[in-house]
Write a structure and sequence with these properties.
Length: 128
């Protein structure tokens, strides 16, 4: 598949996924997956609440999105920026351009967020 068609397919797929997420709530539709970590361990993983957070962001409710998963709200602008740069400039070497220290910091943030949101004193980080 040529790069132009691949980019068009990616944008169309993201658009369809965003429409489905905007139209149906992840708490009400069985179509959306449930968190396996939460189901098997009863602990909130760093991604718990991300679908609901994206659903509320697509509907313009920033406060509800933050209540579901603040990390998603904080990281989404960077993900959108990197994805847009990938689609516009056809660069496929992000892994080699990102310094390893930044990736390790991101891993540490995910681990710390996953631990903190399961502690009673930081219950504000858990999905509501």
């Amino acid at each position: 598949m040529r790069p132009g068609y691949r980019n068009l397919a990616a944008v169309a797929l993201i658009g369809v996924a965003a429409f489905l997420l905007w139209k149906g709530s992840p708490t009400e539709c069985r179509f959306f997956p449930k968190c396996l970590v939460l189901q098997f361990t009863h602990f909130h993983c760093p991604g718990c609440g991300s679908l609901r957070s994206l659903h509320f962001l697509l509907r313009g409710d920033l406060a509800a999105a933050w209540a579901m998963n603040p990390l998603t709200v904080l990281l989404l602008p960077g993900i959108i920026f990197l994805g847009t740069a990938e689609l516009l400039f056809h660069r496929h070497d992000f892994a080699t351009r990102i310094r390893p220290v930044y990736l390790w910091i991101l891993v540490a943030v995910f681990i710390l967020f996953g631990i903190l949101r399961n502690l009673p004193s930081f219950s504000c980080l858990a999905p509501h």
